[in-house]
Specification:
alpha/beta, eight-stranded parallel barrel, 20% strand
Length: 266
Amino acid sequence: MRFVKFLLLVTLLSACSKSEKVKNILVYGHGGMGLSMDNSIYHDNSKEAVSLALNLPSSNGVEVDVRLGADGTLWLYHDEWLEAETNGKGCVSDLNDQDLSKINYQTLKKEKLVTLADALSLLHTDQQLFIDLKHVNSCRNERVDLERLKEAFEEQLQAFQQQVKIICAYEPWLDELAVEYEVLFSTDDVEKGKVIVQKCPLIKGLVIRNAAIQEQDVAWLKQQNRAVYLYDIRSLKGIRQAFAKNPTGIFADDLRKALQERGYAL
C-alpha cells in the first residue's frame, strides 16, 4: 500500500514539474495568427492578424516574414511571388512603396500589404517580434543587397531593437548581422544547426521545424547556451509534442490553442 502511495506521489510530482516547464515555454503567433490555417480570421502577415495575435492574453509576440522593397522599406510578405496570394504581380523587392501600398490579399477581407513599421507599432512593451528574413529576389534569381538591408534595419528597427530578433537562413550573413542584432539560424537540418552554433558563436540559437528535432537535440543546444524555437506546429497533437521537447519557444499556427495548452484561459 505504501509503495502504491509512493508511486502516486512520484507521478503527481512529475506531472507538476512537467506543467511548470510548459508554462515557461514562450508562445508566439506564426505570421500573426498562423500560416495557411483554414480557421484563421485574417491572412498571415497582415496588420489585422498581427494585432489580434499580440492582443491575445499571455501572447509573447509574433513571428513575421519580411522582405526589402525597392525603396528600402521593409514589408511583410511570406511567399516569393505576389500573384501567389495577392492582386499584385512580381516580387516585393522590385516594387516601390507606392505600388506595394496598393496591393491586397485575395481574401474576403482583402487585407493590405503592410510595412514592418506597422507591425512594430503594435508591440506591447513585454512582447517580442521575430523577423524571418527573406533574402532572395526570385524574380531576378539573386540575393538582396546586404548593405541596403542593414541600412533599412538601422533606420526602421532602431527604436525597437531590444524587442526584435532576426531569423536568417543564409549562413554567410550570420556573423555580420549578429554584431548588431540578436540573430537565430533557420534550418531543417538539426546536425547542420549544431555545427553552425559552434562555428558562429555570436548567434543566439536555432529556429527549426518541429518534426526535424528531438528532445535530446533541444537539450544539447540549451546546454550550449543557445535558444531553440520550433515552428510548423498546427494541431493540438503537434503543440503537445513541441512542448514535450522543452524548447525556448514555439511559433504556433493555432495560437489560441497553444496558449490554452500552456495553461492560460483566453
